[in-house]
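Before relying on records like the one below, remember that each one covers exactly one chain. Contacts with other chains, cofactors or solvent are not represented anywhere in the record.
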Amino acid sequence: MSELGLDPESVELRRIETDEEARAEAFYGSPTIRVNGRDVQAPQPDEVVGLACRVYRHRDGRISPLPDPSEVIAALRDAVEEAGRRSG
């Protein structure tokens, strides 16, 4: 985040504690990582909303409990570019 000029302190952690909250937030399990409200990896067709551990699929086919770092970086870059277009 720092390399992109973003403040790491701006990260907001949110707890989803009930199925109702999970449905309201379209929460596909923990961890769900969003940048400006957009999921860093689109949920797979077989994923369901709810309180569960989330599984990410990397581009090379591996399964992981975390998204591919390149997807997080791409989402952050897109957000920076979008903010630049809005302000300039």
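Helices lie at 19-25, 69-87.
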